[in-house]
Structures are given as structure tokens and as C-alpha cells.
Amino acid sequence: MKVTKLGWSAYLLAALAVVLDQASKFWILNVFDLPLKGTVPVAGPFHLTMVWNRGVSFGLLRADADVTRWALAAFSIIVAIFLAVWARKTTRKLTAVALGLVMGGAIGNVIDRIRFGAVADFLDFSRLWFPWIFNVADAAITVGILILLLDMLLQEKEAAPKSATDAARKPQRDAI
């Protein structure tokens, strides 16, 4: 099956998300050396805090065993492939954006899981009562899922009849 123009856009956005995620992690780990510093205040409630996430999302379902690490990596790859197949035939802009963000985020985190055995998280807004520390890939996945939900709601709204008066205005065929 041929890839739609929006499918290519989704792939491009996924690649951009991976590059931004991996570049930010490279800077945090190798240039800024956050693992040595632990937590660094940035502005107001925003801090950089180094956390190695061995779980699924936001540290849930910790994966300390090596087999679990590889199972989570395999699952992320399967999800990315499923989304790539879906993206290749999409005809909706919001769907393409959502799939690109989620694909890119999943790939960014699976790279960490394969390289380090855990995902590097460092964006800390816990002073705003948001208890999780996350990274660019996590943000891309979250925003992508929210956009996908919005797109699904908009699709339902478009598919629903506009009103009873619109239905009444349609020409009726005479019953024979």
C-alpha cells in the first residue's frame, strides 16, 4: 500500500521527536552531567532532576529484571510498527500529528531502554503537584495521545447529524 502525504508527515514528525529526545538526553547526560548533580533548579517550579525509569510510564510497573526490560523494549517496538502502519494510510492531519508524536516518543524511549536498561527522565515539575519526572519522549507520547483523543471526538462530531431540521430539509422520496 502506498504511503499518503500525511503518512510521510507522521514519519517526519516521529523522526524529529526522536532527534529532539535523544539530543536532550545526550546533553543532560554527557554535557550538563545531571547524573552527577542530581537536581538543579531552573526557573520557578521547574527543576532538572535525574531519574532512571525502569518502569513503563511514569515509573509504573518497574522492570528491574533483564527479561522485563527486553519485553518492554519489544512491546514499544511493536507499538511503533503498528502506529507506522496506521500512519501510512491516514488522511486526517490531526491523526498524522498524533501518530508521529507517539511513534517518535516510543522510539526515543526504546533507544534508552536498549542502551541503558532504563529510560533517562529529567524534566521535573513536581513543585506544581505533578508527581512525575519525565523526558521529551514522554511529553511527545502524552501530547500525541491527547491529540488522537481530540481527533476521535472531532470525527464523531463530523459524523453525527447536524440537527433535526437539517434532516427535515432533505428531500424525501415518496413511498410507493
Q: Can you offer a commentary on this structure?
A:
The protein has one domain. The chain is 61% helix and 12% strand. Helix 1 packs antiparallel against helix 3, helix 3 packs antiparallel against helix 4 and helix 4 runs antiparallel to helix 5. The radius of gyration is 21 Å and the shape is globular. The model has no long low-confidence stretch (mean pLDDT 89).
Supply Rg: 21 Å
Q: Let me know the number of strands.
A: 4
Q: Please report the distance between the alpha carbons of the first and last residues.
A: 45 Å
**Average of pLDDT:** 89
Helix content: 55-70%
Write down the overall geometry.
globular
How many discrete domains?
Answer: 1
What order do the strands of the largest sheet run in, or round the barrel if closed?
Answer: 1-2-3-4
Report on the biggest sheet: 4 strands, antiparallel
Beta-strand residue fraction: 5-15%
Give the class from helix and strand content and strand pairing.
Answer: alpha+beta
Write a short abstract of this structure.
With 176 residues, this protein is α+β, with helices and mostly antiparallel strands. The protein is built from 6 helices and 4 strands; from the N terminus they run H-H-E-E-H-H-E-E-H-H.
